[in-house]
Amino acid sequence: MNKQTEPLDEDARRARMVLALRSGGVMDAKVLAAIEQTPRDLFVPDLFQERAWEDSALPIACGQTISQPLIVGLMTQALRIEWRSRVLEIGTGSGYQTAVLAKIARYVYSMERYRTLLGEAESRLKKLGVQNVITRFGDGGEGWPEQAPFDRILVTAAADKEPTALLAQLKPTGVLVAPVGRGPVQVLKRYTADGKGGFTTEDMGEVRFVPLLPGVAEAL
Length: 220
Fold this sequence. Notes:
Elements: H1 10-23, H2 29-37, E1 58-59, E2 65-66, H3 69-79, E3 86-90, H4 96-102, E4 107-112, H5 115-128, E5 133-137, E6 150-155, H6 164-167, E7 170-180, E8 186-193, E9 199-207
Parallel strand pairs: 3-4, 3-6, 4-5, 6-7
Antiparallel strand pairs: 1-2, 7-8, 8-9
């Protein structure tokens, strides 16, 4: 008779997820530590708690998702955040990516178009004692001009074309990472400002994100 396999405890599942991130190309020690130290189960709905530490995207409210940890790691790594960086995040969502960014950057400015999601994310961040995140309910496609320019910008929804309004809010040597393209599959792109008003663009592989929609949604 085969011995029944006992379920892994949270520490073991956390460690297994970090190993999966390393295997997937996340090598930045700061990023790995930030993800390992962020309790993903806090950001996952009760229905999916058993899958909280899986390397997979999961549904959240308002028809949105909490991203796959590997994608969170790769996008955060691609930003090349420095300890003094001011980061603009477009799409607060559950607040999970926000919490990861907050462990690495000096300040995170996070925008969300769904008021319901924003309120829930703010509560989670407060519970964790995160104090370097400033949130805003608004149209992420327009950015946050009052707080610009930013050292880094991360877009967690797919723009159908180059996000020119957001690129205009980067510092002369800033970095923006965003999924770009129409349809269910997009290309993850990194834009690096060249200090002369232009950008170099790198394609970083295919991804799947919900679309970046205009306007705001008061409630769902």
